[in-house]
Amino acid sequence: MKEQTEINKPKKEDLYDVKKVLAQWADKEEVDKYIERIHKEIIGRNEYNMQFWVTREGRKLAGVIGLSDPLPKVLFLAKTKKPAEIKILYVKDNYRGKGLGKKLVNFIENEAKKQGYSELIVRSSIRYKETAFGFYKKLGYSSAGKINGDEKNKIMKVFKKVLI
After folding, report:
1. What is the pLDDT of residues 80-117, one digit of tens each?
2. Which of 44-48, 135-139, 151-155 is predicted least confidently?
3. What is the Cα–Cα distance from 11 to 8, expressed in whole angstroms?
4. In a 3-state reduction of DSSP, which class is residue 21?
5. What topology is assigned to 5-162 in CATH?
6. DSSP class per residue in 40-109
7. Cα gap 125→153, rounded to integer Å
8. Residues 6+ apart with CB under 8 A from 126
9. What is the pLDDT of residue 1?
10. Which of 47, 147, 63, 146 is nearest to 106 (CA)?
11. What is the pTM of this model?
């Protein structure tokens, strides 16, 4: 029997499993930052219109995705007046290559349209060149340029897709 994919808002009891998914891809500082942001949304105190969803395969948490207003430093790369930003997209290692990331992106594109956004921007660290860059291009995102990342001065590749 094929397991059913569900995409829902995270609950407090999901935070432990979300942390495990994030820890496969990000450093502890970034993991802690996103766990705090997800927790703030759960308790109704989100910032920057940050919203998160988790996905399950059967009963197991398999991935997480986020949506927010874009950072001011990426706005100059937008083509439309109402862009949003994919904040995070991580799929647990053992679920990669099974179409789950594509389902999450399709979900977030539809959610962004419902909320009146006209474009999605996504930043990706150069360290994800082998996993993320081709993935976003395959889903119709075009290269928009590069920006400096956080205080460690990491370079981030930026992709975008007009939704209308």
Report:
1. 999 999 999 999 999 999 999 999 999 999 999 999 99
2. 151-155
3. 9
4. helix
5. Aminopeptidase (3.40.630)
6. HHHTT--STT-EEEEEEETTEEEEEEEEEPPPGGGGGG-SSSSEEEEEEEEE-GGGTTTTHHHHHHHHHH
7. 11
8. 154, 155, 156, 157
9. 42
10. 63
11. 0.93
